[in-house]
Design a protein that fits this description.
The chain is about 60% helix and about 0% strand. By secondary structure, it is mostly helical. The chain has one domain.
Length: about 270
C-alpha cells in the first residue's frame, strides 16, 4: 500500500471514529439511563457551570492534556483531534437527536450508544495516531510509576471522576454498569478489526531501477552443411636459439663441457 493511501485511510478512520464516539455519547445522554464515568463527570460540570456538554468535554480534555507534561507523554495528531472533534460531534448530534420518551426507545439508545462506542473506539485507536487524553493520563502515570498496574490506575481514576460527577449532578444508572461491563469485550473485538497494520519493507518506496544494458545481437545458428572449422592446434615450436655469430670471441659466449655420447649403433 502506498504512503498516500495509508495516510488517507488512517486520517479518515481517525476522524470517523471520533465523530462516531461523539454520537455514541449523545445516544447515551438521551437515554437518561446512565453514562460512563467520564461523561458523568462531564454532565455534572455542565449542570454546575451551565456550559454545553460538548464544550465541557473540550475543556476537560484540554486540562487533562496539560497533565501529560509532568507525566512526560507526547501527544499525537489523534490526541489533539480527540480533544476538539468529540466535543463538537456530541453537541451536533444532541441538536438533531429526538428525545426518547418511553422506556423502550431509551433502552435502544443506550444499547446502541454502547455498541457504537465500542466501534468508535476500535476506529480511532486502530488508526494508531495517538491515544485520547484520558487514556494517556492513565498510561503516563503507569509509565512513571511502574509498580502500579494499568487496571488499578484506571479503576482509581474512573471511580474518582464517577463519584465527583455524581455529586455534581451527573446521571448514574444501569447504563453506567452496562458500559463498564460491555466496553471491554467490545473494544477487544473492534480494535484488532480496525487496526492499520504497520508498514513492512515491501510497502516502502523503492529507488528507481536503472535501465538494463542494450541486449547484444544474437549469434546466428551454425549452417549444418558448412564444414566445421578445425580447432586450432598447438602453437608452432619456437626456433632454436642462434649460435654464436661468426668471428665471436670466446669471452662472449660461455664454454660448456659436453661429454661425447655414443649412439647405439656405435656401441655395437
Amino acid at each position: 500500500m502506498f504512503t498516500i493511501e495509508r495516510a488517507t485511510r488512517r486520517l479518515t478512520q481517525l476522524f470517523a471514529g471520533l465523530v462516531l464516539y461523539g454520537a455514541s455519547m449523545a445516544l447515551m445522554i438521551e437515554s437518561r439511563l446512565g453514562l460512563d464515568p467520564w461523561d458523568v463527570f462531564h454532565q455534572g460540570l455542565s449542570e454546575v457551570t451551565g456550559l454545553r456538554f460538548g464544550w465541557i468535554v473540550i475543556l476537560v480534555g484540554a486540562a487533562v492534556l496539560l497533565l501529560w507534561i509532568p507525566l512526560r507523554q507526547r501527544p499525537g495528531i489523534g490526541t489533539v483531534a480527540n480533544v476538539v472533534v468529540v466535543g463538537l460531534a456530541v453537541d451536533a448530534v444532541l441538536m438533531v437527536l429526538p428525545t426518547a420518551g418511553p422506556l423502550a426507545p431509551r433502552i435502544v439508545f443506550l444499547v446502541g450508544g454502547i455498541v457504537l462506542n465500542g466501534v468508535a473506539t476500535g476506529l480511532y485507536i486502530g488508526a494508531r495516531l495517538g491515544p485520547g487524553p484520558r487514556d494517556g493520563l492513565m498510561t503516563g502515570f503507569v509509565s512513571l510509576r511502574p509498580a502500579h498496574s494499568i487496571r488499578v490506575v484506571r479503576t482509581v481514576i474512573e471511580v474518582t471522576v464517577l463519584v465527583v460527577g455524581w455529586l455534581l449532578g451527573g446521571t448514574v444508572g444501569v447504563g453506567t454498569v452496562l458500559y463498564a461491563v460491555g466496553i471491554g469485550p467490545l473494544a477487544h473485538a473492534f480494535i484488532p478489526l480496525f487496526t492499520v497494520p504497520p508498514r513492512t519493507p515491501a510497502d516502502r518506496p523503492r529507488a528507481a531501477t536503472p535501465p538494463a544494458d542494450r541486449p547484444q545481437a544474437a549469434t546466428p545458428p551454425a549452417d549444418p552443411q558448412r564444414p566445421a572449422t578445425p580447432a586450432a592446434g598447438p602453437p608452432p615450436a619456437a626456433p632454436p636459439a642462434a649460435g654464436p655469430p661468426p668471428g665471436a670471441g670466446a669471452s662472449e659466449w660461455p664454454v660448456v663441457d659436453v661429454e661425447p655420447v655414443q649412439s647405439a649403433e656405435v656401441a655395437r
